[in-house]
Amino acid sequence: MTTFNVHHPLFATNPTGLQEFIEFERKIDELAAQMRIRLSEYEIDHLAIRVNQRKDAEDRLTALLKCGTILSDNIVNGRNIYLIKLNEPLIFAGQTVDIVELPFPKNKKYLYDSWEHIELVMPFLYKESTNEWVERINSLFLWNRLTDLNVKISEPKVEGERLPNPSIAVSFCDERRNHTCIKVHPYNIKKIIEV
């Protein structure tokens, strides 16, 4: 529960930020319930923040760097995406999570400048291809058959990454109701960037 985060350095001088984080966790729980998954059964390898203005991204990066260090700074789909390793992990859905993703804005406008998604690790099976993994996850959970959910499949390419990094992103169709997203991928982000 996020009450463990009350004294986290990220929120120590920012009670509004803590309330935003608590609301993010509540919305992710709601989405997970609709997806019929238990977050406790999968590793949450990182959390992500989305902002619309470069200045807001710079401010968020400054705040994150007061309690962590840059693990990675790559260009993905034409924009900088920072991965920050927190010195003290956050507690989210009963797990400790020490990586925060902060993409700098590009052209897309988000409804909210806020915490936006989590990523879960659902590993490849032995000798499973990317296409087989996507097919297995889709047939196992049938998210694309739930009419109130959007499902997006992608495989971002980042220079220097040697492992495939397919992603299945699931969100509510009605973003005004709940703007959050749960993404699944086969490797922990630290393995992808070879940390």
TrEMBL record:
PANTHER family from the UniProt entry: DIHYDROXYBIPHENYL DIOXYGENASE DOMAIN-CONTAINING PROTEIN (PTHR37519:SF1), PTHR37519
GO cellular component terms listed in the entry, alphabetical order: cytosol
Protein name per its UniProtKB record: Metalloprotein
Origin: domain of life: Bacteria
InterPro entries given in the database record: DUF991_YecM-like, Glyas_Bleomycin-R_OHBP_Dase
